[in-house]
Each structure stands twice: as structure tokens, then as C-alpha cells.
Amino acid sequence: MSNPIFSILLFLAAIPPINAAADENFPPELVRRGEQTYLINCSRCHGVRLVNPAGYTFDLRRFPPDQRERFSQSVANGKGNMPAWGDLLKLDQIDALWAYVKTEGANQRQ
């Protein structure tokens, strides 16, 4: 005789995790604008396509996909050794950066 709770737990454990990128469907143009902003302003330290070969900055591929506000605040106000970009980047540019980081990071995690 099997335990029904154990059976349910086994079933739930077999369900694959939800793709984080599916939470938000970003328009391709927004992602492209974010990529351009990233290449100009961020890739110098965070690496091309979010891959930092030197490893001395935060790996943006691992940025928690459910922490958009934390991302925006970190970019605008700086964090640790990263300078504040709030005076240089407009809010829509930071939003586009988020779209790129979340989309590219999700693509690389798959």
C-alpha cells in the first residue's frame, strides 16, 4: 500500500521548474536596445553577452530573475565597486537593460 502524500510529492518533484524568462515577454526591440546599452556601458566590466572571463564582477547570468527592482536600484545607484549610472542612463534605458539581462541570462541558463 503506497502513501498518497508521498506519491503527490514524487509527482511534484518531477515537474520541471518554470522558465524564468516566460514571466515577462519582452518585445524584441526592447531587448535589442538593452543589448546596445549593455555593449556600450556594461560589457567593459561584465563581459560580452554577460560572460565576464576575468570573474571580478558580478555574473549577471545569475542575477535573480524575480528581482527587477534590485537590478534597477543597483544600476541607478551603484553597488559595491560598481558606479551609479542613474545620472547617465534614463529609466527606459535601465528597463531595456533589464530586458536584455533577463533574456540573455535565461538563454544561457537553458
Report the sheet with the most strands, covering strand number, pairing sense and barrel closure: none
Number of helices in the DSSP assignment: 5
What distance lies between the first and last C-alpha atoms, to the nearest angstrom? 39 Å
Unreliable runs: 15-23
Q: CATH top level?
A: Mainly Alpha
Describe the 3D structure.
- The protein starts with a helix and ends with a helix.
- The protein has 110 residues and is mainly alpha-helical.
- The model is unreliable at 15-23 (pLDDT under 50).
- The protein contains 5 helices and no strands.
- Helix 2 (28-41) crosses helix 5.
- It has a single domain (4-109), classed as Cytochrome c-like domain (Cytochrome Bc1 Complex, Chain D, domain 2), CATH 1.10.760.
- The protein is globular and about 60 Å long.
- 18% of the residues are buried.
